[in-house]
Amino acid sequence: MIDKLKEISKDQLLAEVKKYADSKAKFVTGSCNDLGDKLEVTYYFNASPGMDMSALRFVVGKGEEVPSMTGIYLTAVLIENEMKELFGLKVKDLAIDFGGHMMLAQDSPVLPMLKSEDQKAAAQKGGK
Hints:
Layout: E1 2-7, H1 13-22, E2 26-34, E3 38-46, E4 53-61, E5 65-67, H2 76-87, E6 90-92, H3 117-126
Parallel strand pairs: 1-4, 5-6
Antiparallel strand pairs: 2-3, 3-4
């Protein structure tokens, strides 16, 4: 159960994540959702024993760069690489960047979770 869901801007992300780290909360996972012309990113945290969860959510335009939280929680490297590969989320300063091949093989479909074929084609032309 998500106890608290806080809507933030991408510019607030690192400061908000730092608050969780300072309180010794565990980073659990993240998710990305294709909203059409935007991407919705949610990070989940657990600050107490049990199933109570808190989350940070922000929405960005496709093509917008977002800061990586891997400088605070290195474990986010997996989910941020996944969001980058599957949705084309542009993550700045990833601690470990798998270059689009953490999950996807060289001949895999490009950005397989995006809804629009036009967006996939544009991403292919512009690079990942």
